[in-house]
């Protein structure tokens, strides 16, 4: 697959899907859903110029520190962390870039994710301000908050329907602007959900992304995923998210095991290292 990708026989999209599959990610498990990168940083221009490198996100950095301002806080958090019991290793992020709640967050307007979201929120929609209501606002929140590190899901590159409230769900209204949450607000350069998907997919297959995608793959699936390279890349997550970090079979206390299993399922899981 790698050779095919290098020879440009398969698209960037196909390559990412194959890597996700090899690393144990699947559409059948919300806790291990395929993970895709944010690839753009320009959600405000009238036109999207894919020949301009400045419109792309820096793929060599984890999403939590794409904004240089956050790097210092993230570093300090890691350096100052001390677990008195010695169980929890140091980490940069207490949340994860891919988890079940995040998948439902993005796909809230389409079933069965709507129902799953409502179940997760004890029988109702989460408050409107926490809903996925705008792509530019979501990106801005990522830039402002080093604790929000959600990457994307594959649907952002082929499935315009998830951006529309075709079922007419009442998702509430935003507290400050009183704006009603309905269809997802798109970047100015996108004239419709289809147009957004078309341009976003074009961006994914662009020359710039083709030349830099491996940098992101190193962080998520490759050698910068754990160990000294991960520390240096500011890419260490809570210990439970890593494969083999916890030996569930060794836990004899049923309650403790259930609690840990629940945590692993809800918290997010780092893909198997390829």
Automatic annotation (TrEMBL):
CDD domains: Beach. One of its GO terms (molecular function) is protein kinase binding. Residues 1-274 form the BEACH domain. The keyword Transmembrane helix does not apply. It holds the Pfam family Beach. InterPro entries: BEACH_dom, BEACH_dom_sf, BEACH_Domain. The keyword Repeat applies. GO terms for biological process: intracellular protein localization. Keywords: Repeat, WD repeat. One of its GO terms (cellular component) is membrane. This is NBEL1 protein.
